[in-house]
Design a protein that fits this description.
The complex is a heterodimer of chains A (315) and B (545). Chain A is mostly helical. Chain A has helices spanning 4-8, 12-41, 59-62, 72-75, 79-111, 114-125, 132-143, 149-155, 172-198, 201-209, 214-239, 246-251, 260-263, 266-277, 280-308, and strands spanning 52-53, 64-65. Chain B has three domains: 25-193 and 370-395, Periplasmic binding protein-like II (D-Maltodextrin-Binding Protein, domain 2, 3-Layer(aba) Sandwich); 197-364, D-Maltodextrin-Binding Protein, domain 2 (3-Layer(aba) Sandwich); 399-470, no CATH class. In chain B, the strands form four sheets. In chain B, strands 6, 7, 8, 9, 10, 11 and 15 form a seven-stranded mixed sheet that branches. A four-stranded mixed sheet of chain B has the order 2-1-3-12. Chain B has a two-stranded antiparallel sheet with strand order 4-5. The longest helix of chain B has 30 residues, at 22-51. Chain B is globular and about 70 Å long. Classes of the chains: A mainly alpha (315), B alpha/beta (545). Chains A and B meet through helix 3 and helix 14 of A and helix 1, helix 2, helix 5 and helix 19 of B.
Amino acid sequence: MASNKYKEKMSPAKRKSLIRRSIPIYLMALPGLIYLFINNYMPMPGIILAFKNYKAKDGIYGSKWAGFKNFKYLFSTQDAFVITRNTICYNLVFIVVNLVAAVAVAIILSELVGKQKKFYQSVILLPYLLSAVIISYLVFAFLSPENGFVNNSILKPLGKEGISWYQEKKYWPFILVFVNLWKGIGYNCIIYLSTIIGFDRGLYEAASIDGATKWQQITKITLPLLRPTIIMLTMMAVGRIFYSDFGLFYQVPQNSGALYSVTNTIDTYVYRGLLELGDITMSAAAGVYQSLVGFILVLSANLAVRKFDPDSALF
Amino acid sequence: MKKKLALLLAGALALTTLAGCGSKKEEAPAAAESAKEETAEAAGAAEEVVAEAADEGEAAEAAAAERIESGTYPKVVIAYMNFAGTPKGIDRISQKMSEITEAKIGVDVELQIMDSASYSQNMNLMLASGEQVDLFNVVSVGFMPCVNKGYLLDLEEDDLLAKYGQDIIKAFRPMELNGCRVDGTLYGIPVKKDDAAGQFGISIPQALLDEIGFDYASMYENEGDELIYTDLDTIEGILSQIHEAHPEKATFYMDKSSIVSQCLVVDMVGGDPFGVLNDPVNSLEVTDLFTGEQYMELCRRMYKWNQMGFFSKDALTESLGTTVQVKAGNLCAYKTATKPGIKQQESNLCGEPVIIFQCGPDFKKSTAYNTMPWAINQNCEDPVAAMQVLNLLYSDPDLATLFCWGEEGVEWVETEDGHITFPEGVDAQNSEYFNNVNWELCNQFIARVWEGDELTIWDRMQKFNDEAEASKAMGFTWDNSAVSAEYTALANVYAEYQGQLELGFVDPDVVVPEMVERLKAAGLDDYMAAKQEALNEWAAANGIE
């Protein structure tokens, strides 16, 4: 809404030329928009599957309505609480921890120069490019009760008893947060880093001439300038708070039953429950539930942001 | 600005509705439907002409003759699953099979072979989208899910089976076909395979037994027997000796997914463990597996074995199959279900000779016939042709051999004693059609016998199937769609405890009651009651006490 005033002042002729000048940009965006339309909008009518008693013979639209029957299994047990709690709490922790770490790393990287910077950036980014299965075995190499590094090379020399990692629930909240951080930090800090690099160097020069320390420069210049980016990325993360990284929660704990109460999220619950059933209406119901709640969360987060800082609001 | 946004949204919505490809999709099945009706009508008309003077066998001949005469051969697509993905020779084998089917019934066939990981997903997509696939094995897609979603054709519609599948009817006893009926409608044709399973078989490499000096040779009841019948205490003795001799290896392991089904004499009616027949030979009472004595005993035994150090500490997260672990030298003994030919099969898989012990009886579950039947897609344009191809697959030895083993001279050659084996220079790795899934391919009993198995193996298999104790619920199919919410919740609870309990990582006397409590909270009683009700109805309809 901030741009409103600015646009109203424009004369029609000026606006026309602006549009004309923008055509190449729209053209550039076209493939992406087409993809977005095909991939995200066209399947949308499929939402009604969640409310149907699907029969292949009758087709999606011809099948009978089922009301909210397909949603029942999500809420019918005490598991509903556990999986919702796990999904939301893990994601909240991820959002906070990842944000702090990513901004910190981005600032540190921005202070480095030349080859050094490229080297560190690549090394930090590397885990993000690994598939969840590979990561799960890297973790397993550390935690395997029989041959793992932690049990054999750390605990044993210290004279301590080995731990059955894949049976002990209490360690997993920390392990998962750590693995998630290690995996994602390189990617998360890229956007912050590129934003920081774009800042006017003159501000920092002026500040240092005025005698500001590095710390003061960070808190008084970098962070305030970063605020819109931080808010935007955080809000996008909030929108996905009902989704979980399937690989992280399914592969990394090696699908160990003993850990379900701390590793089961909505996604893994739906996957496990429907693995044998293969019921597409029930999976559609879970999808609808996740997107609906995610949608409400984004709207309300945006509402809150608009209240405190209208300039940073997404819409 | 707001107006614009609203306009944009409205536009997007309108577009989505338009582009929802709804109209097109709706038309497709309708068109298929009408096409089907037409063909059915045409077939019906053709039949009427012959039906007056002819019996049902001649209807099939007439349909075949008509197609051969017309010179246009309809194509029947046959889909099944293997473990290695589409084999290189698939087009050649399709062509070879077509040569036979063209000459006999005037139909072309095309094979579609997918690997086990993607089969279920691909089939679901193909069946839902109306892509051509006429005959397929429902293994891993699931028989009941397919029936519930309406993917399968009623095989007795317009007397399809009676007219065009006479050899199929001959290949089975009525009871076996009835295993694929749901509410009286026949949706599938079972595969000729091992229908029973020897419960709680233990496979141990011969070399290990020799090493610890265990005298297994005297334990065979008759000379030349394949199996040694024994009990778990004896096995426990052997395992502890092996454990002493090889503390660096895991002594024992079981594939987690099949412990209850391959170890206990319980009938998991409908294939899930929530409500089973604990005394399946005598009673149709649905009882709780987990509070039953058999399950508790199994868990206690495994707990004891785990305490004795038989299991690897990594067993809970193990994802490799048992025989792969033996081959790699990490595992000594494992559980398997037994059947005629099992010793050869496991020896091949382990890469060394093994001795098979069996601690339970031979037992035939109610799911024996409907885990992997062949079915015709309800979208199939020419069900008559599809049924006739299926009929040939069950009755023509040449076609069955092609289907199971590939082409003579390329994939196999005949040996002097009448077996078949790889030609020179060909092996399991470089063969262009070596699927090793003959248990899924219609009628392996009439195909050639591969070297290593006795030529009489299928006679023995038939005897094994006939003599095994059968569950009283034989032929019952369980439709859990009305209680699918409970099922999902139960499956999740069970998954949490299953590995820990059944591989003995926790004390069953403490943990089983805990699991039962949570299962009850998730609706176990309702689920079992629904199962019992369906079973009673089925029993009443079939006159079973």
